[in-house]
Amino acid sequence: MRVLTHPDAFNEDARFVAVMTQERLQRLLVEHPDLVLDQLLVDEAHNLLPGDTRAVDLSQVILIARSRNPELAITYYTPFIASPQNLRHIDGADQATQVKSVNEHVKIERFLITSPGEHHRLYDQFLNDTFELEDEAPADEVAAVLQAGGHRNLVYVNRPKDAQDLAARLTSQRPQVELTEPATRAISAIADLIDPRYGLIDAIKHGVMFHHSQVPDSLRLYIEELFREDDSVDPRYLVTTSTLLEGVNTPADRLIMMTGARGRANLSRSAFRNLAGRVGGFRELFSPDRQDLTLLQPRIHLIPSTYSRSNWNVDSFLRNVANVASIIEDDVRNPLLEHAEDISGRHAALEYLENIESGVTTVVGARVATTEVGRLCFRHGVHDFDIIETEETLQARVDQQRGRELIDDVATLLDVIVEIFLEGIELPDGDDLARIRDTEGARRFYAMVLDWRSRNEPFRRMISHFVRYWSNLTDEYVYVGHRWGEVRYGG
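and the corresponding structure tokens:
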């Protein structure tokens, strides 16, 4: 039996196991309208509750799979939900789903507020109170991280830029460590894949790594494996963002949080518990090689720092996310769930689903795409504009383009995409596509990058191209996006 991780790997297999995100699974189902699943396992099912696009996409996949096979066995797994009934979809799609709860109280985390230059304070999640301890944290925040560290440490920050900055600072204050065979192999592979001067290489030599969404997928997996497999007796530090929140098991015995934020908001209670769950895994806790039970009380340090908001109140944050006595309530915002608090978006979500696969819903009065372009936009997950309102215009533009010569270069292709799908089309405020539509320089830049990718340029060569491109610019500022930028344009 084959294990598939990408829809392109499907080859009309009669039996297979697919491990996919909702986007990839939806594409698999859309491209193979006769494909019927026998069993669907949904991990981290609490991610169905929000009303964002990914939650709705996951619900759409579940409803399509259920529509194709009414006997489909669906199992939801989640450690963070108050009422399992809140995962039920509309139209009785989950009526046959049964509930089984497992209460785990093997580990009791020790939450330590470690303000640089002040005494450590212990937050008791059962008493919902803090107690000052005798030990004092160093005034320097990097020294505070090193003091708080254990054998294998996860250090949490909010942004990719912060992850690399803090990793560099930790590297500068740690001596070089004796490299194990896995670390030596990793350094050689990273130098070959990226560049011998890549900051991650020097960091590894000092027992430090970074991990975030902007690191290439193949390299991110390599970092995770190295953190798991490196058996050095020296401490190791993995500075990470929320990319490590779900689906990544680590041997970490300590978590150090430099901020309580995730994106523009604070970590939710479930996200915080999920992050805390990365520490003291049962595999390490019950390992035959472990001679103590310290992982039954894993330490989690919260350090107010330059990587957190200046007004971050750690005490209030812990009372909101860690107090075991507080009543947990599910915030159900997904309009495709039966118990959604606000159903104003339900008709639109059902209409979208009906356009992906007709007959899945019982929605009345749904607008249905009548053009080839409109149907393809729905099937490929376009959410940037009202497809029904614009499909006639888009179809006319596509028909006009069909009479022209075939496109054989990336720059022309990007111009045609803008001409067909974006010119004169109303986009949501802040949509990144507006910059590509309205700025010729942005189109030229992305055409250049896509051309490199289409020729399978290695990372090392693409880095060289980027540096050369930026060096030749005469503008004072270079646009790199909000994740890496240092100055707000025009601000």
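(Above: one complete record from the training split.) The CA atoms of residues 356 and 379 lie 5 Å apart.
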